[in-house]
Amino acid sequence: xxxxxxxxxxxxxxxxxxxxxxxxxxxxxxxxxxxxxxxxxxxxxxxxxxxxxxxxxxxxxxxxxxxxxxxxxxxxxxxxxxxxxxxxxxxxxxxxxxxxxxxxxxxxxxxxxxxxxxxxxxxxxxxxxxxxxxxxxxxxxxxxxxxxxxxxxxxxxxxxxxxxxxxxxxxxxxxxxxxxxxxxxxxxxxxxxxxxxxxxxxxxxxxxxxxxxxxxxxxxxxxxxxxxxxxxxxxxxxxxxxxxxxxxxxxxxxxxxxxxxxxxxxxxxxxxxxxxxxxxxxxxxxxxxxxxxxxxxxxxxxxxxxxxxxxxxxxxxxxxxxxxxxxxxxxxxxxxxxxxxxxxxxxxxxxxxxxxxxxxxxxxxxxxxxxxxxxxxxxxxxxxxxxxxxxxxxxxxxxxxxxxxxxxxxxxxxxxxxxxxxxxxxxxxxxxxxxxxxxxxxxxxxxxxxxxxxxxxxxxxxxxxxxxxxxxxxxxxxxxxxxxxxxxxxxxxxxxxxxxxxxxxxxxxxxxxxxxxxxxxxxxxxxxxxxxxxxxxxxxxxxxxxxxx
Length: 549
Hints:
By secondary structure, the protein is of the alpha+beta class.
């Protein structure tokens, strides 16, 4: 069976989605693909059946788990597809769903009733097993291709009689000899996607200087009137001054070359691409501090503990790299020795799984950091007051709406308090939604002894006897009340259930809406559903306990 390395393929989402598109075109003769670059309007791949029904297929390259960010992408795709009013919509993604993910997917039908199937990794692998030529076409991983690459990479021209073990043995020997070329640099070689040889030179000890240093000779040029080249030039200058990483292309290097220790033979190389990376230096012991968001007056709003663990250096200063205790928030501090200035930048990466208490401090910082306020960085043991600067750019993550960070900070805070009150501790479920967050607030109110209002305009009751139906039929005018008691109220969140104990609900109605229909149904089937209208000014309520009004 042809195996598909979905995780590797996901590094190129377009290739992954194109591969799935090829499969669906093979499986469905009526399927049509739309070039998304021209604005597909939510129909990258669709099919009209013989009966005229429209089916839209949505291919995603995701692997691992269906995270909240990925779920938002799926919902956006559904909103786009909904404009075409499809009869069916299938999700094609190399993820075999968990029960929680299946419940989330099934829940999409509330707003998008045309949602049909989640075709996961096992389904895709099964279909591709019958069409291995598609995999070889898309991935270029046939046995002939691999042997061809091995042939090009080997250092000796004689036949490898021992096959791959022989090749590995000789490659290891050649690699060991390469390390003897220079006492200052370790040599590592790989091949990129285009089959070009990539050589990585890494200092074996402290950064070499003097005759051991690697230098550019000639000029490095950046073509004018090209925004991408202007950005590359800024990145190059930043890397030299403060450390970092930059990649220069052949166009940048037409007037430049490399010089260094004679044993490396750098002068003989024809440069295609050069990547400059500053070596990381561990900060020992780690440097601990507090990031504090302040009002312009200096009053603190919120704070986050951070730890800097390594740094890179340049000619004018350097950059400290760190994170908060959870690793959710990455922090970079660029410092300039010459003018004693600094610049603090943040990056936020939502985790696959985390306890709600871990998420709250980071989300509070995101929510409270907006232009008009200040951010201060104070290091442990520093009595000078640290650094303070105005916030120039908000920290709302891409794809998030304004106020969303605050909403989720409150939601995770409420979830953490609920876990503490019920002694049930678990990570934030994958399918945690805004509706779940609102329900948690209502549960806190119930636990505080309050009554919560139940939504809706009608209530239905199952009647199993003529006597019961006659009693309801005898109600003509005025309001009447129905009280329901439950031995236990179970709140379900993801794969977890929380027992809140006995619960009581009361409904006040002012009209029966279907009495004639209910009487016929009872006569025919022995049971009937009675639909009653809730009184407009007396809402239905729920509370914990067994006491009845």
